[in-house]
Amino acid sequence: MARLNLLQLCVLAVCLAVASAQFGGKRPPKPKSPVAKGDIKYIKCQVCEAIAKQSIKATKDLLEQAGPKKVPEADILEKLEKMCDPDTDEGEWITRYDIVEEDSSLVLKDTGAIGRCKSECRTIARVCEMISDDVDLTDLSAMLFKGKKRAAISNWMCHDASDACSKKPPALTKREGADEAHSPIDEDELRTERMMRSMKAAGLSGTMYNKETMQEELAEMADTYEDNEDFARMLEETGLDKHMPSRPDSEAREPDSGVASDAAAGVVADVTARLQDTVAKVKDGANKMYDSIKGFVGEWLGKKEEAKKPAGEL
């Protein structure tokens, strides 16, 4: 299968989301990696300190974005409420961390690179949730709003408000599973992931898609709707049919040329331009976003359905 670039990934994501709604509704989400419960007691204090560090960074980012305007305490609280979910922008920081075995302990290391959220990431996220449940986030947001230092926040959060650092973790004897390598993602995939989150937040799709998942979903959907002319035409008009896995009983597809190639390029360019405009309007509301994307990818589908109706039927 040919490698998809960022532009084609964006088009593919929109096609999948619209096709899912147009043909078969929401697809079930991919299962998340399991939490390594046995690791929790070894990393709880370190995760708490990482939360304190990240909460201060998130607040500084809000202040920089606001410029001369004052940041409401409610905005800080909103960030804190989402920071333990690695599938959100606020919780993306969790995917940078790797749990590493050192002598008789587990150490939380910041790799500096956003990665895929596998078992260790889910474990860190679970510990983050446990600590957040113990801590009054309203009190934490008030401390951040007042500009409290990291040491004061860490001491309050990890020693006073929770028992995260109340005692030294035990010596590591045996882990439940093998050490998991951190898996960073490239810039193109990261931008696509973030766009998908915005689309999901706007209610466009019930499924999150990364690069590999999108290609898998496209292949699965093509198998399901292989006899559906509407779906085949949508793939062809967006140029994504060229990225379908080859079938043993099918002839190799000749590359398009001339007018056909120009037409395909025009379609992709048009889709891209409208997609960029759509993503910029995510916060304006889910309905506007859905109508806009559905309009430029699925417009002809509606026309075809109208053509199929008997004369006089509304």
From TrEMBL:
<keyword id="KW-0732">Signal</keyword>
<feature type="compositionally biased region" description="Basic and acidic residues">
    <location>
        <begin position="239"/>
        <end position="256"/>
    </location>
</feature>
<feature type="signal peptide">
    <location>
        <begin position="1"/>
        <end position="21"/>
    </location>
</feature>
<feature type="region of interest" description="Disordered">
    <location>
        <begin position="239"/>
        <end position="263"/>
    </location>
</feature>
<protein>
    <recommendedName>
        <fullName>Saposin B-type domain-containing protein</fullName>
    </recommendedName>
</protein>
